[in-house]
Specification:
The chain has three helices and three strands; from the N terminus they run E-H-E-H-E-H. The protein is an alpha+beta fold. The protein is globular, with a radius of gyration of 12 Å.
């Protein structure tokens, strides 16, 4: 698995996952429990992971849909 994006924006990961699901790309969210433990105040970022083979395509899909992320 490779990191596709890391964000404190609670709306960005659901959007990205919806776009990826629509394209048939599996994704997995990391650090959800850590975010909950810190009180969901947005200090700790969450990460969205995809398979290494899907990473270039996933990045392209997010960019084409106006999702801003580093990488």
């Amino acid at each position: 698995m490779e990191e596709l994006l890391r964000t404190n924006d609670i709306t960005l990961i659901p959007l990205a996952r919806t776009l990826l699901d629509g394209a048939g790309i599996d994704s997995f969210e990391l650090d959800v429990n850590m975010s909950v433990l810190e009180g969901s105040i947005g200090i700790l970022p969450r990460r969205l992971m995809v398979r290494s083979d899907d990473l270039p395509r996933a990045r392209r899909i997010l960019r084409e849909n106006g999702v801003r992320f580093e990488g």
